[in-house]
Amino acid sequence: MPRFKKIISGSIAVAFFCSIASTASAESPTSREYPYLYKSSRAMGMGGAYTAVGGRVDTLFYNPAGLSNIPKDKGWEVNIVNVSAEAGKNAVKFYGDLQDALDTGDLNGNGDSGDDQLIAVNDVLAKYRGENLHLRVADFTSFGKNWDRFAFGLGGLANGRVDAMSHQGLGTDGLLELNADATYGGVGGMSYGVTSNVFFGVTLKALKRESVIHQFTAREIVEKQDDLDSYITDELRARGRAVGYDAGLIWKVAEDSFLRPAVGVSALNIGDLDFGDAGKIPMSINVGLAVNPRITWFRALTVAVDYVDIRKNFIEDKDTAKRIRYGAELQLFDLMPVEMSLRAGMYEGAPTLGADMRILTFLLSYTLYSEEVGAYAGQDRDKRQLVTFNFGW
Asked: Where exactly are the structural domains of the chain?
């Protein structure tokens, strides 16, 4: 295995996917990205506005009451394979450049390649200084169904993310700030119709997390490259487990009207999702509004707006604009064996775009969005591309 891949494998030997890990714990030193367990490609295409929408099993991570919106005419929702991969700007290029730097040979002919590798690594860290470098891979294999008054969803989550940022050290060496974690376990929830238009939902999560938060010097990267796997997993890795609860409500205000509005409220990670030494995801209370106007030429149109973390429990900042999300989805057609949707929105003050196409049992989704890693919307946007492949029905 190439030398730098040991950084990746060591960081992520912590999860169901031993191939790539993650940041975004509440203690992240690298960025001010809000903590989360999973990002739905559908929700992100709509600017993250999903609290009053739902309609798929992935609503368990936004508002469990949204299970009541799973289309009844489609029967069971089954996601046998539901893999997503996400990369920020220059992240893949950075890892390639750093791997090349660690492969540097003895250029000055002194019989030692270590000094040459150190120079090459410092050059790479200087090249990408101040950039947030993000990679993520996840799977949410799941199934669910909606009946008249009762709906449920159940799945297994494996989510790994890596965020890194290079800095100038106190001396001549650069620093690579790494924040990586992997979270995996079971997630299940249900929604019940309290009345014909008010639905209440709950989620139960039993999860494990393993994380690495560390500042690597350039010299440390070079000196530890041959045993970086064991160094990270034995000395730097923190482990924890947590059981979490969510609750949510969706009120379909006027189902017979043209707009068919709905109001959603959710309380996620009630009492905080605390993994001990491996980090904590604070409780967040979110509200949302969605309209589903009756249209003739397409299957469905949804327009939604959310305000997340209304109590401002996320300690990264107190910015209001970062907590506002809005967007829309147009389901163009849904004719066996093909269906297609288009999405657009605004997430933390930056535009999002998304689309998916299903042919038979195969679904491919693409989402383009920007994560604000600064203290306020518009300060330091990290543009990301998210691709999801799904096999199911």
From this structure: 5-392
